[in-house]
């Protein structure tokens, strides 16, 4: 695949401070004006400020490995990042109706300069600013939105909240009889399991895979907890319809758990379950968000 030249706008950094590492082996050009604009946001106490501060740290780390003005390879298998100074930008490439005194226009002038200097490579402007992308297109520049933050890199990296554990029939019978089942460290080590607090487990019989039991793991000292009966009617006559929804309800209605985070595809019931929790009993909204 032919290498491309990527010019990144400030908006991408304020969305993802690590965006420079998301463009494979393509070379990246950062107008020095972008660094100045990032710096203006570093004191904000929100996600924008967080990404601004992290972006600055990333550039400082790269600076320690070489000259940003000459170009620094990001890492093995990645392209070269170079910071472009204003003196290196050919402002004559900018149409008269655009001013180099405006930050967005100066960034576009950088892209036009890079495009002219290396005509054999595609030059792409990456920006989350819709109007900037429109202007870039009018100037004959290729442009793309930055959407990496909306895409899961690998499905296996998503924490699904439960693990399957193979046990004998007797263990499942003991669990249903209400007897204590403790997964101590020796058992976890033998099963090569790394369970987290509040992680759910599905006990599966080693002799009959259709015999199962759902439980919640606390730690290596306390026994597995029974979860809320998935046939139990809750607020608005709504009840869980699968094990994932049962897990969610079990955590939502446990007042010892202050924070519950739900992820899932559209229509999986996340909002409905949260509404059911809020409408069930005299709970304060501030108690759990």
Could you describe the 3D structure shown?
With 289 residues, this protein is of the alpha/beta class. It has 2 domains: 5-150, 5'-nuclease (Rossmann fold), CATH 3.40.50; 156-287, no CATH class. Helices cover 31% and strands 15% of the residues. The chain has 9 helices and 10 strands. Strands 3-4-2-1-5-6 form a 6-stranded mixed β-sheet. The relative contact order is 0.09.
Key words describing this protein structure:
31% helix, 9 helices, 2 domains, 10 strands, disordered C terminus, 289 residues, four-stranded mixed β-sheet, elongated, six-stranded mixed β-sheet, alpha/beta
Give the count of helical stretches: 9
Low-confidence stretches: 281-289
Calculate the terminal CA-CA distance, rounded to whole Å.
46 Å
Number of domains: 2
| H-E order | EHEHHEEHEHEEHHEEEHH
Helix content: 25-40%
CATH architecture of the largest domain: 3-Layer(aba) Sandwich
| CATH top level label of the largest domain | Alpha Beta
| Mean pLDDT figure | 86
* Biggest sheet details: 6 strands, mixed
Structural class, from secondary structure content?
Answer: alpha/beta
List how many beta strands DSSP finds.
10
CATH fold group of the largest domain: Rossmann fold
Oligomer: single chain
Strand content: 5-15%
Shape annotation: elongated
- Strands across the major sheet, in which order? 3-4-2-1-5-6
The CATH homologous superfamily of the largest domain: 5'-nuclease
Radius of gyration: 27 Å
């Amino acid at each position: 695949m032919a290498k491309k030249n990527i010019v990144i706008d400030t908006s991408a950094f304020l969305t993802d401070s690590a965006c420079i590492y998301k463009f494979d082996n393509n070379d990246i050009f950062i107008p020095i004006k972008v660094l100045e604009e990032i710096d203006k946001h570093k004191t904000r106490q929100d996600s924008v400020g967080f990404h601004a501060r992290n972006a600055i740290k990333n550039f400082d780390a790269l600076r320690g490995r070489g000259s940003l003005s000459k170009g620094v390879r990001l890492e093995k298998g990645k392209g070269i990042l170079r910071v472009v100074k204003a003196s290196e930008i050919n402002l004559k490439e900018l149409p008269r109706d655009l001013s180099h005194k405006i930050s967005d226009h100066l960034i576009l002038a950088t892209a036009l300069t890079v495009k002219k200097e290396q005509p054999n490579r595609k030059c792409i402007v990456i920006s989350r600013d819709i109007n900037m992308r429109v202007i870039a297109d009018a100037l004959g520049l290729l442009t793309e939105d930055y959407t990496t933050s909306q895409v899961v890199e690998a499905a296996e990296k998503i924490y699904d909240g439960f693990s399957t554990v193979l046990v004998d029939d007797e263990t499942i019978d003991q669990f249903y009889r209400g007897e204590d089942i403790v997964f101590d460290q020796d058992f976890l080590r033998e099963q090569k399991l790394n369970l987290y607090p509040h992680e759910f487990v599905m006990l599966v019989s080693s002799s009959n895979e259709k015999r199962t039991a759902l439980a919640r793991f606390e730690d290596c000292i306390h026994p597995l907890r029974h979860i809320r009966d998935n046939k139990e009617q809750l607020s608005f006559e709504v009840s869980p319809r699968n094990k994932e929804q049962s897990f969610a309800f079990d955590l939502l209605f446990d007042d010892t758990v202050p924070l519950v985070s739900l992820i899932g595809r559209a229509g999986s019931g996340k909002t409905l379950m949260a509404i059911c929790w809020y409408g069930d009993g005299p709970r304060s909204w501030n108690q759990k968000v």
